[in-house]
Amino acid sequence: MSQLNSHQFEEVYKWLGINLDDLGCIMLDLEPIDMPLLDVQELPFHYTKNKDRFWIKGWVAKETPHITLLYGLLEDGKNFEPHIEKVLKDWKLETVEVEDIGFFESPYSDEPYYCIVAHIKPTPDLIEGHQRLEFLPHINTFAGYKAHFALAYIEKNEIVRDNLIEELKKKFVGKKLSVKKLNLGGKK
Q: Residue 171's CB: how many other CB atoms inside 10 A?
């Protein structure tokens, strides 16, 4: 069974007047990661044609990779800035560690792809940051919190996906990355 997510219940959110693509997000920006030299051949990166899914664009870790601390705020994170400052008062995270490399399937039925992700070691400090933000009005869009950041979006091809994941595990598992800043989200 695939992971439950809010996109499986879009009619509920339509009835509630909530557009799942307009939910707010609080993130931790990390240091950019250039695509390493890999043994796999040319990668079939996926680039969305849907302007509302602006983040789906090939090797995304080269820009500003980010860990989502909380997705699903009922408003843009910038609208909650004073409240975010209050719930995160005296909380800080300086580094994160890549624990594994995996993937998520696209939640969009009209756009099949794999999102290749770096799973982050769930340290007590990271979990605390997420839990503090849960006190703000939000919708859980996926069951459970799995700290991760997107490395790349690729076309749906299981062989390429599995080979890429194995190569990226060699390069990134155990790597520590610096947290640059708290990011309150917003469309670019």
A: 15
Handedness of CA 187, 10, 105, 130 (dihedral sign): positive
**Residue recorded with tokens 């994160």:** 96
pLDDT tens for 7-45 read: 788 888 889 888 887 888 999 999 998 876 665 557 888
CA dist 74 and 79 (Å) reads: 10
Burial 75-93 (b: 16+ CB within 10 A, else e): ebbeebeeebeebbeeeeb
Three-class SS of residue 100?
A: strand
pLDDT digits (tens, 9 = 90+) for 148-174: 999 999 999 999 899 999 989 998 999
- Map out the domains of the chain with their CATH numbers: 6-183 (3.90.1140)
